[in-house]
Amino acid sequence: MHLLEVSNPVAIQRGVLNAISASNRPATLDDKTVGLIWSGTHGGDIALKRAGEMLQERFENVKVNFYTGGNYTTPPAIVPQAGEECDVVIGATAD
Amino acid sequence: MIVVEKMGKPGVAIVSGRFESDAVASSRAFGMPDLQWVVVPHIYRNLDPETCRTQTEDAIDDIIASLTSSIDARQQAEQTDTRRYEGEDRHDAIMRMNQEFINEDLGDGLLLHPPTAESVAEMLTGTNLPPDHEVCDMPPGFGVATIEKIAINAVMAGAKPEHLPVVIAGVKALSKLGGQGGKSLLMSTSPQAPLLIVNGPVTKSLGFNPGSALGPGRDNQVNTIVGRAFALCFRNIGHWYFNKMDMDTIGTSRKFIQCIAENEDASPWDGFHVDQGFKASESTVSVFVTDGELDVQDQGNHTAEGLLKNLAYGSTFGTMSLQSPRGGQERLILMPPDVARPVGTQGFSKQAAKEFIHKHSRGSVGKLMQYMPLEGEARVHDHWKWLENLTEEQLLQITVPIMNDPDDCYILVVGADRAKTAVFPSGPAPVTEGIDQYMA
C-alpha cells in the first residue's frame, strides 16, 4: 500500500473570511415599500413589475418603487437609493 | 442585493435555474453566504412577455417567503490543509488523487502532478517571498492568493521553481485588471479568457517560444506549462469554476490558458513592456482578456500600407456595444515578423501603425448593432437612440470606427515567418506586472 498526502490547492475566499449575515425580515409586507431593481436586460422589467403587482394584490397598502439606471450592469447608485427608500428589495438580472 | 442587505434591508434576487450554482458561488465570494434568491426555470432575456409574467407568478410564494421568513445560515464546507489517498502503489494513489480532484472540478481534465509537501517546498525555492505572503485576492471569486497556494497549483501543472515568479506576477496582474480584475467579464456567459504574454530576459532564460507560440507540442512546453499553472491558480484560488463563477454558454479552448512570449528579436519596435513603462532589461508578464480569435491572412501585399489596410479590414468583425457613447472594442494584434518587419522598415513607428489601423478599421453600424434590439432594452445608451429612426438600409451604409482610439489597439510581434496575423477582440486594457521582484 502507498499513502499519498498532498496539499489542498483551494484558497479560502475573502468573502468567506469577512462574511456577514442576512438582515432581519419583517413578518408581513403590509404597509411596506418594495423596491424593484432592473439591470436593464430584456424581460427582467416585465418579471419585476408582475412581482410588484402580485405583492400589492396579496398585502395591504404596499407601495412599489421601480429602479433602473438604464444601463448594464445595475449602476451602483440606484442600489443604495433603493436601500434607502424601500423596506425590502427584489432584483432580477434576467440572465 | 448584498449592498441592500448591508444597509439592513431584506433583499431577494430572481435567478434562472442554470445560474443557481452561480448564485451560491457569488454569495460566498462577495461576503454574504446567506443571500436569498428565488429560482425560475428559464432565463428571461429571450422569453416572450407572457412567459416572463407566468414564470414570475409561479415564483411569487418563494419571493414572499424570502422577504418575510427568518434566514437559516447555510452550511459551509470546512477547508483542510492536506488530503490523503491510499493506493496499491504510488501510481495508484496518484490516480485516485486525480479522480477525486477531477470529481471536485479542481483540475483542467488532464493528469495533475501530486502537490506533495516535498514538491511544494521545492517549488517555493523559486521565489524570495514567504509561503504565507498574500499576493492579492484573485478574481472572480476573490480567493486569498498566498505564495503557498500559487506554488501548490504550479506543482499540479508540472511547473518548475524558476517558473513560479512568472505565475505569481500573472496572478497579481489579473487582480489589477479594470472592474475588480475584470470580474464581470470573467463570470460572463461569453467566452472571455486570459492570455499571458512575457517580455524581457526571462523569455529566453526560461525558454518561452515567441514563434508559433499558441500551439501544443515540444516547442511550446514552457508556454503550456506556465499557462496551465496560471489557469489552475485561476480555478482553485480565483474560484473560476465552470457553471459556478464561469458561466460560459459554449466555452472556448482559450481557457486552456497559454503564456507566450513576444518575439522581440524579430520586432522593428520596442517590446510591449517598454510601451507599458518598463525597461527593456526588465522581465514582465502582461495579462490580456480575449474574447475570440481570427486569422487575418495576407496573400501578396508587400507595402506597409497594403499590409496594414488588410489587417485593419480583418479587424472589423464582431459587435459594437451600445451601452455607452464610446461603443468601440479593443483589439490585441499578434503581428508576425513578415508583417511587422516591412511595416517598421518602411517608416511606421508602432504608434503610427496603430493610428493607421484605427483609421481604416471601420464597420457598418447596421451590422455591428444587430446583437441587441434598440427597443425594450434599457441598456441602450441615449447617445445611440438616434439610430431608432433609421431604416436598415441607412444603418448598413453608416460606418463607425471599430476602436474608439488608436490606443485601444495593442500590437505585439509574435509568430513564425509568413504574413498571417492573429487578431483577438480584447479588453479591459491589459495589465503588465514585473517578474523580477518575485524571483529568488
In a few lines, what is going on in this structure?
With 95 residues, chain A is of the alpha/beta class. Chain A is built from 3 helices and 4 strands; from the N terminus they run E-H-E-H-E-H-E.
Plain-language structure description:
The complex is a heterodimer of chains A (95) and B (440). Chain A has 95 residues and is α/β, with parallel strands linked by helices. Chain A has a domain at 38-95. Helix content of chain A is 28%, strand content 24%. Chain A is built from 3 helices and 4 strands. Chain A has helices at residues 14-17, 44-58, 78-85, and strands spanning 2-7, 33-38, 63-68, 88-92. Chain A has a 3-stranded parallel beta sheet with strand order 3-2-4, sandwiched between helices. In chain A, strand 2, helix 2 and strand 3 form a beta-alpha-beta unit. The longest helix of chain A is centred in the middle third of the chain and has 15 residues, at 44-58. The model of chain A has no long low-confidence stretch (mean pLDDT 88). Chain B is an alpha/beta fold and 440 residues long. Chain B folds into 2 domains: 2-68, no CATH class; 117-361 and 402-438, no CATH class. Helices cover 35% and strands 17% of the residues of chain B. Chain B is built from 17 helices and 15 strands. Chain B has helices spanning 2-6, 20-29, 49-57, 60-68, 90-103, 117-124, 147-157, 164-175, 178-186, 202-205, 221-236, 272-275, 304-314, 337-345, 350-360, 365-368, 392-397; strands at residues 11-16, 36-40, 82-87, 134-138, 143-146, 193-199, 259-261, 284-290, 294-297, 330-335, 362-364, 399-401, 409-413, 420-426, 431-434. In chain B, the strands form 5 sheets. A 4-stranded mixed beta sheet of chain B has the order 7-6-8-15. In chain B, strands 9-14-10-13 form a 4-stranded mixed beta sheet. In chain B, strand 4 and strand 5 (143-146) form a beta hairpin. In chain B, helix 7 (147-157) packs across helix 8 (164-175) and helix 13 (304-314) crosses helix 15 (350-360). The longest helix of chain B has 16 residues, at 221-236. At the A-B interface, strand 1, helix 1, helix 2, helix 3 and strand 4 of A face helix 1, strand 1, helix 3, helix 4 and strand 3 of B. Strand 4 (88-92) of chain A pairs parallel with strand 1 (11-16) of chain B, so a sheet runs across the interface.
